Amino acid sequence: MASELLEMIDRVIAQETAENGGFSIENDSENWKIDNDVSAEWALSKIREEKAEAQRLINVCESQILFYETEAEKAKDSLEQKTGYLKTLLLDYFGRVPHKKTKTQESYKLPSGTLKLKFPGPKYERDDTKLVRWLKDRQMTDFVEVKESPKWGELKKVTKTAGDKVVSEDGEVIEGVTAVERAPEFTVDV
Predict the structure, then answer these.
(1) 24-63 confidence digits (pLDDT tens)
(2) Every domain of the chain and the residues it spans
(3) What value does the CA radius of gyration of the chain take, rounded to a whole number of Å?
(4) Is the dihedral of CA 92, 93, 98, 99 positive or negative?
(5) DSSP states of 88-133 as a string?
(6) H or E stretch including 162?
(7) pTM above the 0.70 mark?
(8) What are the tens digits of pLDDT across the range 69-114?
(9) Cα(36)–Cα(17) distance, rounded to whole angstroms?
(10) How far apart are CA 103 and CA 14, in angstroms?
């Protein structure tokens, strides 16, 4: 039913454009105007078609992205499975040969690569609330960050706009805020 209606609308538009000198939206889009409900319905149907086609392409692309992400994960897992045993044997060998030692790592060079045992620094898990309390108790406030910011959402509820000025309930101009008018936004829901 819907496709029959769209075909009928296309025929009516074609007939109207033929009567008006053979105009079509494709060859004279600058002069084309929507001046009745039928042409408005035709435009909405075209928007709906374009939207559906774009969504189809987006779905295909997202599907391919998911496919390639899955393939990449499989390749990583396969690499780990195929090389894990060899890495274990190399670590055992590394422990039996004399190697260079520094504060952060130990290494052993071979012609085609280097075996390394790294010693990363500790990972710190913090409870910032307890840490701040501890610092304040010891008057170590130089290590406490204080961040002030306005509660704009709450302030906005009690203000009014006068031109480009924002004023408080008692009419005082609020410094640091300017109202910038925005153009209306036209949307088409299909």
Answers:
(1) 455 456 678 999 999 999 999 999 999 999 999 999 999 9
(2) 34-118
(3) 34
(4) negative
(5) HHHHHHHTTS--EE-SSEEEEEETTEEEEEE-PPPPPP--HHHHHH
(6) strand 160-162
(7) no
(8) 999 999 999 999 999 999 999 999 999 999 999 999 999 999 999 9
(9) 13
(10) 81
